[in-house]
Design a protein that fits this description.
The chain has 305 residues and is an alpha/beta fold. Helices cover 29% and strands 23% of the residues. The protein has ten helices and 14 strands. The protein is globular, with a radius of gyration of 19 Å. The relative contact order is 0.16. Bound molecules: NADP nicotinamide-adenine-dinucleotide phosphate.
């Protein structure tokens, strides 16, 4: 089967699509023929070696957490799934950017009717992370919450989940994304010089919670705006969070089939929009990451094996 591999840390050019052995599912696993698999900035950071201390790679390394597809084999202990079932899920084995992936049955949920393959295959990392961010800062109807990277993969879901709790949501984004944010009941504010003052104006001077999905300066900004550290969550700037006592709850805080299944149902019912920016065939994985690493994706970029 074809799968993405890299044999050393480096730039996008170290990514290869290679012919490798098809995985054999263990007793508690199923083999999924992948129809769609989302890509993440974190995968680019792992590939570059930038996360070696935290999450080292072993070579040759595969890649990919998000997945959706059709079950083609089931392990001997699996009871809840059968060959032919359409599922979405995730693996923590860096393996879903491939034609087939072996996945623990507890990390899968049935694909709801009407949910596109692209959305199903790119929902887990962004969805679980957004869910965890919102849970961490716990916004309610009387709260104003600011979200940085508000139109990105994680941010576009976090703003909608915070709105579902009745909060006033201010979304930091480039001007081209402001119309989308407004359509979703979010007050858009452009990032860049003078941002603190623009947020004060948009919020009437009162910000209760801050979700940072971008990094670099946003935890400090939240503190400057008077947000209590326990109501700041960043998924990127761990060092500054430690300095101020802010939270750092991410994907692992909500990585389970129950959360994924709930988000999938919301998306299938049209109550949660997962914007799909672009799709690429697996063979064009380098182009997909060139696109992602511009850092201006609205929603998700998806590989289609
Ligand atoms: N800890 C975890 O568990 C976890 C999980 C998932 C992701 N992450 C991390 O979270 C970050 C976001 O992930 P993602 O998938 O949402 O990324 P993404 O889809 O690539 O989104 C990038 C966003 O960054 C925004 N942006 C670009 N320059 C900016 C600036 N100077 N100030 C503010 N925003 C800016 C862009 O906004 P415009 O397009 O509007 O300009 C875009 O919406 C990544 O660093 C990723 O590694 C962590």
């Amino acid at each position: 089967m074809k799968a993405v591999r890299f044999h050393e840390y480096g730039g996008i050019d170290v990514l290869r699509v290679e012919e490798v052995e098809r995985p054999v599912p263990g007793p508690d696993q199923v083999l999924v023929e992948v129809r769609a698999a989302g890509i993440q900035p974190g995968e680019a950071m792992i590939r570059s070696g930038g996360l070696h201390e935290r999450w080292p790679a072993t070579f040759p390394s595969g890649q990919g957490s998000d997945l959706a597809g059709v079950i083609v084999e089931v392990g001997s202990h699996v009871r809840g799934f059968a060959v032919g079932d359409e599922v979405l899920g995730f693996t923590h084995d860096r393996a879903s950017h491939a034609e087939f992936v072996a996945v623990d049955d507890v990390r899968l949920t049935p694909r709801p009717k009407g949910l596109s393959w692209e959305v199903a295959g790119s929902l887990h990392v962004a969805g679980a992370t957004a869910y965890a961010c919102v849970f961490a800062v716990d916004p309610g109807p009387s709260d104003t919450v600011v979200v940085s990277g508000a139109a990105g993969g994680v941010g576009s879901l976090a703003v909608q989940l915070a709105r579902r709790r009745g909060a006033t949501v201010i979304g930091l984004a480039g001007e081209p994304n402001h119309a989308w944010l407004k359509e979703h009941g979010v007050i858009p504010v452009e990032y860049g010089d003078g941002l603190a003052e623009r947020i004060r104006q948009a919020s009437g001077g009162n910000v209760d919670a801050f979700i940072d999905t971008f990094g670099t300066g946003y935890v400090e900004l939240a503190v400057e705006l008077g947000v209590r550290p326990e109501r700041i969550n960043t998924i990127r700037d761990w060092g500054t969070a430690a300095k101020f006592g802010a939270q750092t709850v991410g994907e692992s805080g909500a990585a389970c089939a129950v959360v994924l299944g709930e988000l999938a149902r919301l998306a299938a019912r049209g109550e949660l929009e997962v914007p799909i920016a672009r799709t690429y065939p697996l063979d064009r994985v380098q182009d997909a990451f060139r696109d992602l690493e511009q850092r201006h994706t609205h929603g998700k970029i998806v590989l289609r094996p």
